[in-house]
Amino acid sequence: MITVYNKNFSIPQICGSGQCFRLDRTEDGFYEVMAYDRYLKMEVKPEKTLLYCSEEEYEGFWKGYFDLDTDYGAYLSRIDREDAYLRKAADFGSGIRILRQDVWEMIITFILSQQNNIPRIKGLIQILGERYGEKRETPDGKFYHTFPDAESLARATEEELRALKLGYRSRYICGTAKMAASGEVDLAGLSRMEYPEAREELMKFPGVGGKVADCICLFALHQLDAFPVDTHIKKVVDSQYGGRFPFSRYKGCAGIMQQYIFYYDLKGEADK
């Protein structure tokens, strides 16, 4: 078991930030996450979070996955003192970190996210795993499914995916899986590209426009200049920044600011 102190690290906030759809609170009050082919159980306490894994697994995978080597206090200190809105948003969501997620999973996840809500996205991902992923057992004797790889989804027909209630996204997923499985778009190569090049490459996939590509760049490729704009972000940028977010000030961390804004607009407004 590994102890991580909760300074600028909050599993509940990360869970609610819209970047990860296989991280959930369980009925018994723990949290669990499936990432790549791995499973992790976590217990959140007031001052610390307990990760139920070995030190070797933590150092080799989970530490990097949660971006725990990065000082998010340095990002928080860059916020303009005159920007009352962003300071409030960052204070509200200061435990959010940008996860280092699997690029293939994020491509399919954010294709599914279009015109969809978070509970339904999670349900569709679970269905895809059960149908096309591999069944695994946790140390507690629970079962979960890995996210299906490109080759597995490439063998699925559009009709099969529509039967799983994926709707019009079925065509996009079939086309995207075939392109990835054939190497027409090199998934491994994306991590070696700069943000603009990776964004352009991702948009070769059917169903991947600029906003979806930005989500993939931020949440999988860790391109922190990516700044996905959905209805929440557009509303805030229009109302607080006159339609122009100050990207030059936040070069290298604009995507982190986006997460603070998104989470605050989604969760914080209800608390006012």
TrEMBL record:
Its EC number is 4.2.99.18. Signal peptide: none annotated. Keywords: DNA damage, DNA repair, Glycosidase, Hydrolase, Lyase, Multifunctional enzyme. One of its GO terms (biological process) is base-excision repair. SUPFAM superfamilies: DNA-glycosylase, TATA-box binding protein-like. This is DNA-(apurinic or apyrimidinic site) lyase. It comes from Candidatus Mediterraneibacter stercoravium. One of its GO terms (molecular function) is damaged DNA binding.
